[in-house]
Structures are given as structure tokens and as C-alpha cells.
């Protein structure tokens, strides 16, 4: 069974300088992903980057993943 820690590691290994928080029950997961490479990208492009980082795992091992994708500056603004 896939764990939140697995997904966190897969994303961090494939999206440089990313900070990832994952919560989930083994089937459904929620992610907050902060990555400087998201700068200037639309939400769809950001999600495509995450799907690319996860590769075939999205087809076979991860059943549902909702995500919030932020740049570092967006993350700082949302914490203020």
C-alpha cells in the first residue's frame, strides 16, 4: 500500500527544491506542494509537473490525489 511518505519522497525526488506535505489513508491523498519551478505556471501546468514527477504511479498505485501547488512566495503569503 502506498503511504503519504512514499508520495512525498517521489515528488521531492523529481521536483527540485520542493517542499511537500501529504496526508492520506492509502487510497485518497491530499498534498500541499511548494516549488520554485511553479513560478509563472498555471494551475494546470503545475499539476502536470506533479503528475510527471509521479509518472506511472498515478495510473497504478495512487487512486486519488488532490493538491495545492504553490510557489514559495505564494506559500509565504498564505501563511501571513
Task: Give your account of this protein's structure.
This protein starts with a helix and ends with a helix. The chain has a single domain (4-79), classed as BolA-like (GMP Synthetase, Chain A, domain 3, 2-Layer Sandwich), CATH 3.30.300.90. The protein is α+β, with helices and mostly antiparallel strands and 80 residues long. The protein has a 3-stranded mixed β-sheet. It is built from 4 helices and 3 strands, in the order H-E-E-H-H-E-H. A hairpin with a 3-residue loop joins strand 1 and strand 2. Helix 1 packs across helix 2 (43-54). It has helices at residues 4-14, 43-54, 57-60, 72-79; strands spanning 19-24, 28-34, 64-70.
Keywords:
80 residues, alpha+beta, GMP Synthetase, Chain A, domain 3, 3-stranded mixed β-sheet, 44% helix, globular
Question: What topology does this entry show?
Answer:
Layout lengths: L3 H11 L4 E6 L3 E7 L8 H12 L2 H4 L3 E7 L1 H8 L1
Parallel strand pairs: 2-3
Antiparallel strand pairs: 1-2
Helix pairs in contact: 1-2
What would CATH call the homologous superfamily? BolA-like
Characterize the overall form.
globular
**Low-confidence stretches at least 5 residues in length (pLDDT < 50)?**
none
Q: Provide the CATH architecture.
A: 2-Layer Sandwich
Number of domains: 1
Distance between the termini: 36 Å
Q: What does the largest sheet look like?
A: 3 strands, mixed
Rg for CA atoms:
12 Å
CATH class placement: Alpha Beta
Q: In oligomeric terms, what are we looking at?
A: single chain
Strand order of the largest sheet: 1-2-3
Helix content: 40-55%
Helix/strand-derived category reads: alpha+beta
Averaged pLDDT, please? 93
CATH topology: GMP Synthetase, Chain A, domain 3
Beta-strand residue percentage:
25-35%
Q: H/E series, N to C? A: HEEHHEH
Number of strands: 3
Helical stretch tally: 4
Amino acid at each position: 500500500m502506498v503511504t503519504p511518505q512514499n508520495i512525498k519522497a517521489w515528488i521531492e525526488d523529481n521536483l527540485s527544491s520542493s517542499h511537500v506535505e501529504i496526508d492520506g489513508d492509502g487510497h485518497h491523498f491530499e498534498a500541499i506542494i511548494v516549488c520554485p519551478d511553479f513560478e509563472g505556471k498555471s494551475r494546470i501546468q503545475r499539476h502536470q509537473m506533479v503528475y510527471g514527477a509521479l509518472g506511472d504511479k498515478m495510473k497504478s498505485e495512487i487512486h486519488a490525489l488532490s493538491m495545492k501547488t504553490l510557489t514559495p512566495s505564494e506559500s509565504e503569503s498564505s501563511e501571513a
